[in-house]
Amino acid sequence: MKETAILLISCTDQSGVVAAVTDFLQKNSGNIINLDEHIETESRQFFMRVEWQLKGFAIPEEKVKDYFETLVAKRFEMDWDIEFCQCIPRVALFVSKHAHCFFDILNRWESGEWKIEIPLIISNHEKFHHIAERHKIPYYHIPITKANKKEMEKKEMALIEKYNIDLIILARYMQILTGEFIENYPNKIINIHHSSLPAFPGANPYRSAYERGVKIMGATAHYVTEDLDAGPIIAQDIIPISHNDSIAEMRRKGKDVEKRVLAQAVWEHINHKIIPYKNKTIVFS
Amino acid sequence: MKETAILLISCTDQSGVVAAVTDFLQKNSGNIINLDEHIETESRQFFMRVEWQLKGFAIPEEKVKDYFETLVAKRFEMDWDIEFCQCIPRVALFVSKHAHCFFDILNRWESGEWKIEIPLIISNHEKFHHIAERHKIPYYHIPITKANKKEMEKKEMALIEKYNIDLIILARYMQILTGEFIENYPNKIINIHHSSLPAFPGANPYRSAYERGVKIMGATAHYVTEDLDAGPIIAQDIIPISHNDSIAEMRRKGKDVEKRVLAQAVWEHINHKIIPYKNKTIVFS
Amino acid sequence: MKETAILLISCTDQSGVVAAVTDFLQKNSGNIINLDEHIETESRQFFMRVEWQLKGFAIPEEKVKDYFETLVAKRFEMDWDIEFCQCIPRVALFVSKHAHCFFDILNRWESGEWKIEIPLIISNHEKFHHIAERHKIPYYHIPITKANKKEMEKKEMALIEKYNIDLIILARYMQILTGEFIENYPNKIINIHHSSLPAFPGANPYRSAYERGVKIMGATAHYVTEDLDAGPIIAQDIIPISHNDSIAEMRRKGKDVEKRVLAQAVWEHINHKIIPYKNKTIVFS
Amino acid sequence: MKETAILLISCTDQSGVVAAVTDFLQKNSGNIINLDEHIETESRQFFMRVEWQLKGFAIPEEKVKDYFETLVAKRFEMDWDIEFCQCIPRVALFVSKHAHCFFDILNRWESGEWKIEIPLIISNHEKFHHIAERHKIPYYHIPITKANKKEMEKKEMALIEKYNIDLIILARYMQILTGEFIENYPNKIINIHHSSLPAFPGANPYRSAYERGVKIMGATAHYVTEDLDAGPIIAQDIIPISHNDSIAEMRRKGKDVEKRVLAQAVWEHINHKIIPYKNKTIVFS
Could you tell me the fold of the domain covering B90-283? Predict the structure, then answer.
């Protein structure tokens, strides 16, 4: 097993950044196995992702963040993060009554494709309780109403703390989170929603898309911000639609693209490939 | 060369329609080589496209429309059209200063890929006059302002009549047509526009899409109706975008998907594969 | 719930076929809700799929096959089949040690997306026994060796008969079936295999594809014939690959496209949209 | 206009490479605006693409290659190249009788989308002479037979030298080049060929693909090596195919994907995004 660390950096573009970072790693015998860099030309913002082997690295794991801050990050006023790949992210699933994304995530976890732990499932319905039990995952049925939302979200936040959660996936969770909840988990909540070209507002977007005769249906995975469905986009894709597709068939195809796009976004997140910046994301390949 | 005719039908779904049509053709020795049918279950609307060989067909070409109306269409209150495939559609191109769709259409015509004639090019700029001359296509420079729009459109309509135009392609024509103009050519004007998920209104959608960090750019080809960019969709597709794509690169990729989607829509139109219905299209494959 | 029947027809193209079929249905008050037809021009072969409502249909379900054969099929020397949509297909899964397709199929079944029954799982390994138990599906561990293959396949065939199986899905089943086995289930066994452009023979195609630097990986779902991996293709798709993808990552992406393509093929099969003909398939949309 | 230089490097992965390169640029006031790096883990081969602004760069353009070799490249035993972006690549087109790729390239050049010059067109047919004349591009009709191939290729090589060609595009050029010709232009000849899954050898692959009922058609753009169609792949893509597509329609769709994939490969080449290595390519995004 490779033990590596990943450094994600964002700072104003300036002379000497790359050299300073690679210097820091290489002088301490950190063997770089991956380096990606991006400069947003207009804003002169610099982004970097470096992965290096911990074996032989001169700085002990528990001190590396401190050293990096002192020796490099401070000088360039970096926003930065270091992730250790042997740390397995702890994921909470928020679900309602739709199975497709929820089941797909359980599959990828159970088959070992994703190196994650799922210590917590929260739902506003009892529907999937038996699924959670089957996998021995604690399942909390927290029915939310307008009246009790604040109180229920407090309960949820307590659970997230209790179970030491790193990432929240809204796997077709049909509740709108409050700003108070969201601001506690910046870039830690991933949501999936379907959409079409043009976008149809209102209660029944599938019907509107059907009546307009759209030829593609899309899905968008994004980090959740207070502005509903308008957070930084992580992944998007579409599926072709024809006049042969009934609304039911559009829904079925929509589910397939939703689960595919959500899975891609989560994969990129748990592999530390994403740097959010303003309202967009840099997703290194 | 196959000489065939194509019948496009739309009517209320009712017992006996398919049998009546196939009967009409086969009793008159019309060899069916293609038949597609679609029923929109909710509205109970029936759509059909039949292609048959004219060789050996008992009804002479000039009488077939009359006979069909009398013997079949009337009874079922059909909207219908018969197209003879040896008739080469006469296409007018409306262009501004963008070359990509315009050049692509000229290519497909000049290489013989599309069996069309292009007897007319109209532009609000002189820019592509020499291109038209090279191909010996009449090019009319009709600069439109708010003040002269009605008058100029009259001039355009006179040209469309003079040149006996069957189809108008807005190949990135950057002018908005008036309702008076549009209503003369129902389902005879095809437009292409780019778009993204979500859609960004305003003057600079590429910039907005860039700032939001969209991961796909799309294009939509549609028949033009009075409701701007909201006519029946014929074809749509997307191209992946990443954080590496500058606004300039997004534009370049956008052009590629625009020309591809417009070409697909025109191909389907000139092959009589499309039945518009309400604000959507049935596009037989 | 709609109760419908689906008629799949293949015969030499000849005058009057469509009229005869639609006549047969409509004279007996069979309301057609879907009709697709295809003519392979070169071979003059005709294909048709008609779906009609059983409610009000004058011929009782148990007699419709007999009547159709006598009144229509015989005259045109048709290959044909009638499927009743309320009949739920009984599917056997053959699996080895790969989870992705297997789990995905279980999901689609358990969530109700697919109307199928899964009364039988056969594997050459014990690995997924507990998964089958969880779903209360009989799981037979039948380890096959070169020496015992004929005998083991007999056992499998007995199980397929016992459980009254309509469709066998090889969900990454890593055994080659004998001709004796295959010929018992013509167009009833669906397999999935990955592939690339160009195709790489040999033991480690992923390595070869990696070393050649392919930019796409594909998957093909097909009916199994005696000619290994060369049966009629049902569905195909690809996923983009870049130099950033290690062999492990190519495998991971390959799994995603495999499960997507297999699911599409099975969906089309269980919805009776496929007519195999010679070594190809007509897949109505 | 940005004036930049691009450095492409390939060498054994070793400590200090990135730091040495970025140091070299930054100590000489070279403002890096793009940096991509890739490590092929198995072979321990390191690849890098750096783009920096020439404005203010301390080393004069005519000396930068010499300095880089001496100060950096030698030490790490690099294969490397420096491209100056204001240098406009001179492209020779080799064509036969197929218009689609040829016309598409002319378009992208004439519209200014691609910053290239096209000083030379070579063809084994007279067919497109008038197209070349229209654009005032020298057109050489060099009909090749088995008997005269060596002699004719000498003539071609003389023209390539005379016109100072940087890149040869085989835009559906239906002749096989000899090894003698190819070895003069390593990674300087780009070819496009269509293909399908599975691949069909023989004279009529479209017919074979049609008879097998493939559901996708693909195209591959690659550098030409002596091993026919087996050089390093640059770009690949596919287009969906259905049973409705006749062989003629498959060809038409095939042309569309060919011209798209060839255009992508050429774009990546002329923007110096490609590093060939062994029989594959690193294509930076």
Answer: Rossmann fold (3.40.50)
